[in-house]
């Protein structure tokens, strides 16, 4: 085992401790639940490049904008065959949640900002990489279980 | 009987191409995909004389200019310079299964999947659609890896 590797659990614990210190004071330690993705094409196509975000994380208007703009999906061309895109659009909008339909980033929704009000330095950690990487901290996010600790 | 000859020639070319593709790719589905690109390349590129792993390698590594995504001047930007290794999405950090057929035998066996990825990533990396010859070169390179 390299020294680097043996260090990892320690940094993990440190990260958790820091999260607990910053977030734990304001929020009870519990799971926030979102209905998991149950649509195979959504799971596959969205999940290829990032976690397949649950439809409940955005309102229908936001999903519609996202599916209208796959050719420029946050800077990438993420276009899909028309029939696949239509099925995914249907699933996402039918199972959408609440929020500001003008915003297409989950991480700009007001509820999200409220729950992630901590040091910006967390986002630049290598293990986190991006705000979109829910699973870096919420290990069971892909199942719709966001631990709140 | 003037029309017969070209048809016979075409049939011969296609069957010859099929044999070559199967030998080069090692999988019937992959061979079919390559044959499809070979037929398109013949129509698109005058003097097309088969796919080249070397050209495929150059395409894979880049660097290319003009891509939609400035962070990815080559396929290798996400898939790494060693196509047998696990790749990493440049922005999200998501793992990408190896591109090399030796490390990931399922690569290039689903035509819809293959087209979907070319459709997207040629724009992301090159800023334009790939030609059939480029697609075939790319698959040929990675089939031998």
Automatic annotation (TrEMBL), chain A:
Keywords: Signal. The keyword Cell division does not apply. Residues 1-28 form the signal peptide. The keyword Glycoprotein does not apply. This is Dihaem cytochrome c. It comes from Azospirillum oryzae.
UniProtKB/TrEMBL annotation, chain B:
One of its GO terms (molecular function) is electron transfer activity. Gene3D superfamilies: Cytochrome c-like domain (1.10.760.10). Coiled coil: none annotated. Residues 51-145 form the Cytochrome c domain. The keyword Zinc does not apply. It holds the Pfam family DUF1924. SUPFAM superfamilies: Cytochrome c. It comes from the Bacteria. Keywords: Heme, Iron, Metal-binding, Signal. Residues 1-23 form the signal peptide. This is Cytochrome c domain-containing protein. It comes from Azospirillum oryzae.
């Amino acid at each position: 085992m390299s020294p680097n590797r043996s260090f990892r659990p320690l940094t993990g614990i440190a990260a958790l401790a820091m999260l607990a210190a910053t977030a734990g004071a304001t929020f009870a330690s519990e799971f926030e639940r979102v209905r998991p993705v149950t649509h195979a094409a959504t799971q596959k196509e969205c999940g290829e490049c990032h976690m397949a975000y649950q439809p409940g994380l955005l309102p229908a208007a936001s999903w519609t904008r996202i599916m209208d703009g796959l050719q420029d999906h946050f800077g990438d061309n993420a276009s899909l065959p028309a029939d696949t895109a239509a099925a995914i659009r249907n699933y996402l909008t039918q199972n959408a949640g609440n929020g500001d339909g003008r915003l297409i980033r989950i991480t700009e929704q007001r509820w999200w900002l409220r729950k992630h009000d901590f040091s910006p330095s967390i986002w630049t950690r290598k293990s986190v990489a991006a705000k979109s990487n829910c699973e870096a901290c919420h290990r069971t996010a892909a199942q719709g279980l966001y631990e709140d600790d | 009987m003037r029309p017969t000859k070209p048809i016979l020639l075409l049939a011969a070319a296609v069957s010859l191409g099929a044999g070559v593709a199967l030998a080069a790719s090692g999988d019937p589905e992959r061979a079919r995909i390559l044959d499809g690109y070979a037929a398109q390349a013949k129509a698109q590129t005058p003097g097309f004389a088969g796919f080249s792993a070397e050209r495929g390698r150059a395409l894979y590594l880049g660097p290319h200019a003009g891509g939609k995504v400035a962070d990815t001047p080559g396929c290798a930007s996400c898939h790494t310079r060693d196509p047998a290794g696990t790749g990493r999405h440049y922005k999200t950090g998501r793992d990408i299964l190896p591109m090399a057929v030796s490390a990931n035998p399922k690569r290039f066996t689903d035509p819809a999947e293959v087209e979907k990825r070319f459709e997207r990533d040629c724009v992301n990396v090159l800023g334009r659609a790939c030609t059939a010859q480029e697609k075939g070169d790319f698959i040929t390179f990675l089939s031998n890896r």
